[in-house]
Amino acid sequence: MTQNILRIDASMRKNGSYSRTLGHRLIAQLKSQTSLNVKERDLADGIPFINEAWINANFTGVAERTAEQRSVLSYSDALISELKNADILVIGLPIYNFHVPAAFKAWIDQVARAKVTFRYGDNGPVGLLEDKKAYVILSSGGTQLGSDIDYVSDYIHHILGFIGINDVTIIDSSGIGRNEAKIIADAHAVIEGI
Predict the structure, then answer these.
(1) Confidence at residue 56, expressed as pLDDT on a 0 to 100 scale
(2) Which of 51, 161, 162 is CA-nearest to residue 114?
């Protein structure tokens, strides 16, 4: 059975990026196990921030939206379609200044839409993108996952779970500035075990 992978690269570096390099390795590992279709979304190529027109369009009922409002949401709709079609997400995510890159946050803002990827129920939000697996490669120079200054790993679990993706594996390549060879070798070992 062929599975669909959505690969999201959030590193602004096209060359020399640890998260991209490990992403290539992870895709190769997954391809060695099953037939895959890979859709790539490179956030370094640019992603628009939401704005007032986007918010107004999003909060207008689908049947009441003007052609202009549908156009404003068309990019978001395309990103959500990619997500819905994916069985597996592979997210290469560096840590910039103690958090996710602005482009990744912009992607989250485009895809976290009430009544589309989540809804509010009697007991709070319910994610609508279920039965998906996510692998998140977290890379950093100095921020160590699990440390007092790790503001990313909990956020990733929370925001993906918010839209219904609860099966999340984090591949830790954080703190590369401390011991690059060991950290990369450990990340490769985790990938080889998948």
Answers:
(1) 98
(2) 162
Q: Which helix (H) or strand (E) holds 22?
A: helix 18-31
Assess contact for 26 and 192: CB atoms under 8 A. Answer: no
Structure tokens at 163: 């839209």
Say what the pLDDT of residue 46 is: 96
In the numeric block, which tokens belong to residue 86? 């994916």
Q: What is the pTM of this model?
A: 0.96
Q: Which of 23, 15, 17, 18 is closest to 41 using CA atoms?
A: 23
Distance CA 151, CA 139 (A): 13
Instruction: Using alpha carbons, select from 131, 82, 104, 80 the residue that is nearest to residue 12.
Output: 104
Q: How far apart are CA 132 and CA 71, in angstroms?
A: 28
At residue 5, the 3 state secondary structure works out as strand
The per-residue pLDDT for range 154-193, each reduced to its tens digit, is 999 999 999 999 999 999 999 999 999 999 999 999 999 9
The pLDDT tens digits for 55-81 are 999 999 999 999 999 999 999 999 999
Contact 41, 74 (CB under 8 A): no
